[in-house]
Amino acid sequence: LDEIIALERRIVEDLRPSALTHLGLVATLEILADEFAAASGLRVHRALAPAPLPASTELVIYRLVQEALTNIARHAQARQVWLTLAAQDGGVEVAVRDDGVGFDTEAGLASAYGLLGMRYRVEAERGTLTVRSAPGQGTCIEGRFAAAGG
After folding, report:
1. H helices then E strands: how many in the chain?
2. In the prediction, which pLDDT does 147 show?
3. pTM value?
4. Among candidates 51, 143, 38, which has minimal Cα distance to 97?
5. How far apart, in whole angstroms, are the C-alpha atoms of residue 106 and residue 134?
6. Among 23, 42, 125, 141, which has the minimal tally of Cβ within 10 Å of its Cβ?
7. Buried b vs exposed e over 111-144: b needs ≥16 C-beta within 10 Å?
8. What is the per-residue pLDDT for 128?
9. 5 CB contacts (<8 Å, ≥6 apart)?
10. CA 20, 23, 25, 29 torsion-angle sign
């Protein structure tokens, strides 16, 4: 019974992290960045400002950052990461940038499922996703969303 309860809690936590509900997006991204830095050994620079967003958009931003950090750990060979969240021009922008090896965005990537998943999630929230990268130039992933009530 205890194992089933623990499994149920993990499933619920995976669907929507409790920190997101209880602490808010900025604190949850801080926790995610701290855990990533500790696990990867990379330096994570942060500029995170609270922004008015629906709960569904907060979850999409959390998942976007989570997937971007996973991609950095797997592929980027980076030394540093920059994570930003800011209200801009009537919307909200989140960006994850690294100083890693980068890639050719024009080449068809066999392992681009993570990027496709990010794009689908962002567009489902009526946001836009931009991926900028080039070999030897690092990668920047940006999501832009309407602010709550916008």
Report:
1. 5, 5
2. 79
3. 0.86
4. 143
5. 9
6. 23
7. ebebbeebbebbeebebebeeebeeeebbbbbbb
8. 97
9. none
10. negative
Q: Which are the contacts of 109, defined by CB distance < 8 A and separation ≥ 6?
A: 103, 115
Q: What is the DSSP string of 46-73?
A: EEE------HHHHHHHHHHHHHHHHHII
Q: Strand 128-133's sheet: what is its strand order?
A: 43-48, 80-88, 91-98, 139-146, 128-133
pLDDT along the chain (150 residues), means of 10: 62 65 93 95 97 92 94 94 94 97 76 81 95 94 85
Chain centre distance of CA 108: 22
pLDDT of residue 12: 47
Locus of tokens 């989140």: 94
Looking at 16-112, list the stretches that DSSP marks H as alpha helix, in order from N- to C-terminal side. Answer: 18-23, 25-40, 55-71
What span, in angstroms and rounded, lies between the C-alpha atoms of 55 and 130?
A: 22
> ∠45-93-35 over CA atoms, to 5°?
35
Residue 69, amino acid: L
Residues 83, 46: contact at Cβ < 8 Å?
A: yes
